Structures
1.
Amino acid sequence: MRTVAVVGTGLIGTSLALALVRRGLTVHLEDADPDAARTAASLGAGTTDPADGPVDLAVVAVPPALVGRVLADCQRRGLAHRYTDVASVKAGPRADVTALGCDTTHYIGSHPMAGRERTGPLAARADLFEGRPWVLTPTADTDTETLNAALEMVALCGAMPIVMDAGAHDRAVALVSHAPQLLSSLVAARLEHADETAVRLAGQGVRDVTRIAGSNPAMWVDILSANAGVVADILDELAADLGETVTALRALEAADEAGRRSGAAGIEAVLRRGNNGQARIPGKHGAPPTRYETVAVVLGDQPGELGRLFGEVGALGVNIEDVAIEHSTAQQVGFVQLSVAPSAVARLNTALREHGWSVRSV
Ligand SMILES: NC(=O)c1ccc[n+]([C@@H]2O[C@H](COP(=O)([O-])OP(=O)(O)OC[C@H]3O[C@@H](n4cnc5c(N)ncnc54)[C@H](O)[C@@H]3O)[C@@H](O)[C@H]2O)c1
Ligand SMILES: O=C(O)C(=O)C[C@]1(C(=O)O)C=C[C@@H](O)C=C1
């Protein structure tokens, strides 16, 4: 594969284009909003010049409800030999594609399981899909070359292909993406009118739980409209769990010891079930869940500090598996929490302290 067209240069389209340009492909960028395509091009994601003839693969990266119409238009123009999309739901767009009479032999649905709570080309990152699952939903119509082109795209992005039926995909993402989005929004919504003094105490826990509450409402209405029933079923089950949790908390307030014991047992059961579920989430590249340890470094809030820290950690040969930054509300400092392999912790603590960093125990 040498040439690709990306139609829709928002977060996902531009991230994909950046990844493919990095791998030496020629990428042609299009968007209904010319500013979005120009911005993507200025970030190095490809060219806004149209291709001379059909490209090898066109990727439709527009909101789910528009996939069918945009694909039909691309095929009418003969934009590519093969086509895919990246929408977060698969059955609805697939039904639209069929209803609009698109060529389904040269089209395969796809969905990268990576994203951000921000949209638009400026939020794009070339490494967004690195190590992430990327679902492909071929049907009996899909020809082998089209499946192979999609597999090549996924490999070029460093992602892991997972072939699934569209309906099974939609049921799975209801559990691991759509319901979590709504729960994050609901927790954050509790803060809307909360007392300012309470909100000022927000620490890393509530930040972690509410990160995706910053997502684009219009895009999520689109996604949830296409998967509403399955997500509602999951929320029904969650509502039952919530009811039991409330009962257990009320019992904890009871006057008698037996009531308090039963309440504590109920709450402990919820927390243990949470531990068990969380432990099942795979690590990077689908590896078994990995336990990392945190090294917390206090950083002056000034230009270049983060880069200097990352550079020194890299020079020590330690891989940063994840990073979280907590800003102090009171002082011009931040706490950078580096997740690293447990075996690297002692060495990293000592070396960073020797280099003058303030390392905290967590
Ligand atoms: N944001 C995420 O976390 C995420 C993750 C995986 C998949 N997706 C899916 O990727 C797709 C794009 O999402 P995004 O986050 O990049 O959104 P985005 O809002 O950043 O980008 C969408 C782009 O599509 C363009 N567009 C709209 N109508 C168009 C048309 N008719 N022709 C050409 N361009 C058109 C918009 O101008 C916009 O630039 C959606 O289907 C979404 O479900 C999103
Ligand atoms: O990390 C995030 O910000 C996301 O919400 C990404 C996320 C997800 O739920 O994992 C959101 C929707 C997409 O369809 C795929 C990925």
2.
Amino acid sequence: MVKYTIAVLPGDGIGSEIVPPAVNILKKIGIKYDIAFEFKEALIGGAALDAVGVPLPEDTLKVCHQSDAVLLGAIGGPKWDTLPTHLRPEVGALLPLRKDLALYANIRPVILYPELVSASTLKEEVVSGTDLVVIRELTGGLYFGEKKREKTATGERAVDTLVYTTEEIERIARLAFETARGRRKKLTSVDKANVLESGRLWRETLSRLAAAYPDVELEHMYVDNCAMQLVRAPKQFDVIVTENTFGDILTDQASMISGSIGMLPSASIGGQVGLYEPSHGSAPDIAGQDKANPLATILSAAMMLEYSFKQVQAAEDIKQAVASVLNKGYRTGDLVQEGKMVVGTQEMGNLVAGEIV
Ligand SMILES: NC(=O)C1=CN([C@@H]2O[C@H](COP(=O)(O)OP(=O)(O)OC[C@H]3O[C@@H](n4cnc5c(N)ncnc54)[C@H](O)[C@@H]3O)[C@@H](O)[C@H]2O)C=CC1
Ligand SMILES: CC(C)CC(=O)C(=O)O
Ligand SMILES: [Mg+2]
């Protein structure tokens, strides 16, 4: 029997509602495939600030490093928004955790389940059949550059910096080329090279590496155009690779192709220990109400099985279980479609678990 330890970090808001269903499904997968999962829960974000005064406790980092993978809910919320920047859950916990685990690549597949075509805000003929993946650089760029605030004679001056090195661009580009190679062989590199120096280096680096991947078609696109193209004709995309902030924004937008941000999973990889989390945040507006869609987190657990544990069939089982539940007509509130049955977070989790036999 194989054994894996999973660090479980529910975090804030809906985090404590969407993570337990994913853990429960992993337990069922463990029974079916003879995998012994050990789950070690740890504090992060506002929950950690409230309990021990820091957003990313040393103990949590230790648990993550000593595990084979990390399952994260979401962090942040209004209660902690006014703290100094370095203490905020987002800047004080999530970014340093990603950096500490050397997770330079964030993979966000945007797949529209056929059952959810009418849940998308976009027209059926535009979105039907969409299957693209965004590869977002995760430990560099605007989120990690130097920040400062200074007093001026009339007010204040705030600075954020966007820095990339050739090496940082090369490693994410290679992963993107390799990913495209295993799919429909089209790579769209998204930048703002018409304005940003970092964008020029990004574009030059991608163009140079393209010679090693003659079977992959590389196109360059400015990020503003990409935002438009994603809603105009999403099926033109296969793999998109882009800067940290651009990828963050474009994937929230792209989530609506799949019906809801509650459908968009993610895998963060690159280091020894992969981290798996939904693409959305802690959704304070619906927290504690059993309304959140747990499917993005459940599908992130499937990505964990695939990327960290190479349990491809087990991952496929989870995706099939999700498809089956959707096919039977069950929806959480974010996916309301005429004639469908609306269920809460827990029930949706139980329904998916019930499909794994
Ligand atoms: N990885 C993380 O932990 C992230 C944390 N955040 C943090 O989350 C907090 C809230 O941020 P927002 O901008 O409101 O983004 P959000 O993604 O939490 O919510 C945006 C909207 O989508 C809805 N939504 C999100 N996930 C859902 C789900 N699973 N099911 C149904 N509806 C869902 C929410 O109810 C809300 O109306 C902030 O503190 C933010 O910094 C935001 C993004 C990522
Ligand atoms: C909260 C941010 C640091 C990150 C974010 O929005 C994301 O990773 O999707
Ligand atoms: Mg985001």
